[in-house]
Amino acid sequence: MTVAEVLQRLVHEGDALLKAGRFAEGEARARGVLARQPRHAGGQYLLGLSALMQQRHADALAYFDGALRTDRVNPQLHFMAALCQAGLDRVEDAIASYRRALQYRPEFLEARANLGYLLECAGRTEEAAGDDEILQILGRMVKQRQESARAFEEGGRPELAAQERSEVAIL
Q: Using CA atoms, how far apart are residues 118 and 130, in angstroms rounded to an integer?
């Protein structure tokens, strides 16, 4: 197993532990990653996630910022930073971070919804995405998944086609 595979496995295990509420164990996995590779975005992300889940917004933001120094174009990291900034009442910073998340992943509906909420709270309703824009994004997402399902069927991968169709049903 390569070093990258070991680190990825530790990140995956740490994520599962954090989601199970086992913060000390999840953080131990993250620290194991960072001991091997101090700037590893996944290790920083896990520590940020743990801190955020424990309502330690300032600590979480420091970890997400560290991960962003390594992985600037990751929309999930910008989203998580925005959550922390909003929790710290840094509304303008949160708005900017949500916008960066959307720059890298325009169909990121949760980021779009959170951005709209912050803009409305700040009295900037004209900047918030309307229902029409959200419906257009959902339409594009459905079309992409339908095309993927068709390609998977033609490629002899019916299980992947079924997964794409189940995502269409959710959308």
A: 14
Q: pLDDT tens-digit profile of 121-137?
A: 888 877 765 545 655 66
- In what helix (H) or strand (E) does residue 115 lie, and over which residues does it extend? helix 109-121
Q: How far is CA 16 from CA 71, 89, 110, in A?
A: 22, 29, 21
pTM for this entry: 0.74
pLDDT tier at 144, thresholds 50, 70, 90: confident
Q: Over 60: is that where the pLDDT of 110 sits?
A: yes
Helix (H) or strand (E) holding 34: helix 23-36
Is residue 63 within 8 Å of residue 80, measured between CB atoms?
no
The candidate with the shortest Cα–Cα distance to 112, out of 101, 104, 120, 121, is 101
Give the Cα separation of 80 and 114 in Å (integer).
11
- Shortest CA distance to 18 belongs to which of 48, 62, 58? 48
